[in-house]
Structure formats: structure tokens, C-alpha cells
Amino acid sequence: MPLLTKAVRGTRDVLPQEAYLYRYLENTALETARNFGYAELRLPVFEHTELFERGVGGTTDVVQKEMYTFFDKSGRSITLRPEGTAGAARACLEHGLLAEALPRKVCYALNCYRYEKPQAGRYREFRQFGVECFGAAAPSADAELIALAAELFSAIGLEHYRIELNSIGCPGCRKVYLESLREYFQQHQDTLCGTCNERLAKNPMRILDCKSPVCASVAANAPKVVDYLCPDCQSHFSAVQRLLDAMGIPFTLNPLIVRGLDYYTRTVFEFISESPELEGLTLGAGGRYDGLIEELGGQYTPSLGWAMGLERVLLQLKTGNAPLPEQEPCVLFIASRGEDAATVTMQLVNALRAEGLHVQSDIAGRSLKAQMKFADKIGAQYTMVLGEEELQTRRANLKNMSSGVEEAVSLDDLAEWVEQKIIQTMQEDLQAYFNE
Ligand code: AMP
């Protein structure tokens, strides 16, 4: 019979051979962020639609074209989160986390939903790790936030990327800039796509983000926001750069990076892949959004954050042959012959698992030969066969599956023995690593 259905377009099943790598990435990200003072938040998958309309911005592609929005059974407009910042800000506001001990630093690993055209590295359901720092106005906050991303990349061995940096100023300097920008784009109105013509009226800065090559070529010569920064924004931007230099974090300036909404302010940045296969792919992005908390009904709280796409980060690690951890192997498979041996096997396996060891035995009622074949297939490091004789002597042969060497061990010291073998294998691996 054919399968009833398949996964929805743009979604991906993360299978066991890859799922543990996401766990590894998330754990490393959480640990790295923790060292910078970030605590994890877990947020709802869906929110009231107006949160994203206000928190992401009604003129963005995400809100205009890409949101999964529906009415629930009581007629409320609900949206599957397209990103994490708005939800994190809402949750912190709602629970009073911004009323005390600022800055408040939170981080999250979550799935996002955007109705985009699926392609390599772009999905309709994808995973992000993000950090948000609420209540920090100084340039050191911007530099620390970027340093956190650099530290995370270093911790997971991600290379071949660049940090692109820009400042989009404050609403004050932006006002003057928007006038020049509108004037410039009006001169090229006939060349711009239909959407950009609408943007011209509502928010010309969004034109700088347009993916159409024609609009991009017009945008390349548009006035640059950095040339319009007020003295305060200028000195903030210089300080961020000076601090990054002082920490030895390289970056390049890219005046075309924008977040064209009023509450995004000053520093914006992107982490861009430089690996030959993924050149130009955005691994993550972020910036300052000093106006967001007010926009959501809170008090003025200068804040900033970034998010990175975990699928893209993993793609980059794999294409760059970064050292990824191996999946925890089955350390021992105990095969058995006969009912009594099967019972003792279950007792032993249970006791070893209680010691925290990954041990398996037959639960499919297979012949001894088939059990051994299965042990081989799952890559068990050691195997042991229990039969009548082994039960009587309480000793059995443990076989190292890669060297074929066998050793007799007492069933009563099995846990200790297996633990010793694990330590020995780890030491040998370390030795081999240092000898390389
Ligand atoms: P953004 O919220 O658009 O700045 O996205 C932050 C990061 O999430 C991007 O840099 C990507 O790494 C990732 N990302 C955004 N959209 C997608 C998508 N449709 N599929 C996979 N990753 C995405």
C-alpha cells in the first residue's frame, strides 16, 4: 500500500543520525550563552498575530507574505512564530522580568515557521538559537553580544564566516536619511519591482532588503545610512568597533545591512558564510532594537539580540568538515542462549543501564546467530554471550568487536569492567588524537 502521506513541503524530519547533532549544537549554544549570563526561555509556538505585526513589523516580508496565520476556534487571529525576539520580549514584559536587575539576558532554541520558497538552507519550519539582552544601552553590550556569537562559533569549530557590521542610527538621524532615500528611489521608481514601489511610500529602507537583482542594483548606489548618523550614534558605532578590535574579533563594515523598522536602532550585523559551497549564506543576524519594548507596551528599554539558523550552521559545519561529535555507541551487547540466560541477561542489562551505560540485548526473540548479526549492525563495541556454562561459572568472554580480542570477566564485576573499558578507549582515542 502506498504511504498515506509525506512530510509537508518545506519541513524536514530530523532523523536519529542527525538529531543528536542538533542536541549538541543547542547544548553548546546554551552553555556558551550561560557563561555570558544568559538563561534559557521556553516560549509558545503560537502567539496573537498582532505581536508579530508590531514586534517584527507590518512592512516586513515576514509579516506581509510569510506568516502562518489562522483563526482559532474562538475566532482569534493566531500566528505560528516566525522568529523568537517578539515572543521573548512579550514573555519578559508579561512576567515582569524587565522590572528588576537589568540587563536581563535570555536565550532560546526554538522552531520557527515562515511560508518561504523552500531551497537548500531555507525551510518553512526551521530551528533557531537566539539571545536577547534587555536593558543595556552601552556599546559594550553590542560588542559582548557579537563576542558571544564568535565564541559559540569557535566552540563548535565553525570557520569560514565573516561578521558584517553596520549602524542604522536612531529615529532622529533616520528621519533625515529616509528623506534622502525616498528622493533617490523616486528617481528610479520605474525600475523598482511592484512591492518596492509600495515600500517607497511606506518604508523606503525595506527596498534595501529586496531580493530582486534589479532592485538590488538600484539599492547598491542609494545613500548610505552611516553617512547620516548623528554624533551620539556615530560615537556608539565607533566604540562598538573599538571594543571588537580590542577583543580581537574581526569584522567588515557593510553599509547595506538594514533593519528597516523604527524600533531597530544603531548596530546591526550578520554572520555570513565564506565556505566555497555556501558563500554568502546568512548563518545568523541581529542588532539593537531600542524601541521594541516600548512598541510592545513597556517602558523604554534599550535592547539587542541575534538569532542563528541551526540548519544552516550544521550545513556549514558539515561542508567544512568541522569536528562533530560521534553518536554515543552501544558499549555492550549481551546475547543469550536459552530462557535462563535470557532472564539473567535482562537483569544484567538493567543493572548496567542503572550505572548509566548504553547496553543492549535481544528483545526480538532471535537466534544467537541473528543476535550477533544485530550487535554488529548497531556497532556494539563489545559483545558477550551468556549460556548455561556462563551462568554456572558466573564468568563470560567479552569480545572487543573491532580487535576481535576476547577476555574472560566475572559477571559480578561487569559494570566496573565496562566502565574501565570506556575509560581505556577514551584514553586511547585521546592518545591517537595527540599523536596525529
Ligand atoms: P532572521 O530572523 O530573518 O534574521 O533570521 C535569523 C537566521 O535564521 C538567519 O540568519 C538564518 O540562519 C535563519 N533562517 C531564517 N529564515 C530561515 C529559513 N526559512 N530556513 C532556514 N533558516 C532560516
General description of the model:
The chain is 41% helix and 20% strand. It contains 15 helices and 16 strands. The structure holds adenosine monophosphate (AMP). Adenosine monophosphate (AMP) binds at residues 83, 114, 116, 121-123, 126, 128, 282-285, 307-309, 311-312. Residues 83, 114, 116, 121-123, 126, 128, 282-285, 307-309, 311-312 line the site of adenosine monophosphate (AMP).
Ordered list of secondary-structure elements with their pairings:
Layout: H1 16-35, E1 39-40, E2 46-48, H2 49-57, H3 61-66, E3 69-71, E4 77-80, H4 85-94, E5 104-113, E6 125-134, H5 139-155, E7 161-167, H6 171-187, H7 194-202, H8 213-220, H9 231-246, E8 252-253, E9 265-273, E10 282-288, H10 292-295, E11 303-309, H11 310-319, E12 332-336, H12 339-354, E13 359-361, H13 368-377, E14 382-386, H14 388-393, E15 395-400, E16 406-410, H15 414-435
Parallel strand pairs: 1-5, 7-8, 12-13, 12-14
Antiparallel strand pairs: 2-4, 3-4, 5-6, 6-11, 7-9, 9-10, 10-11, 14-15, 15-16
This protein binds adenosine monophosphate.
Features:
2 domains; alpha+beta; BirA Bifunctional Protein, domain 2; elongated; 15 helices; 436 residues; eight-stranded mixed sheet; five-stranded mixed sheet; single chain; Rossmann fold; binds adenosine monophosphate
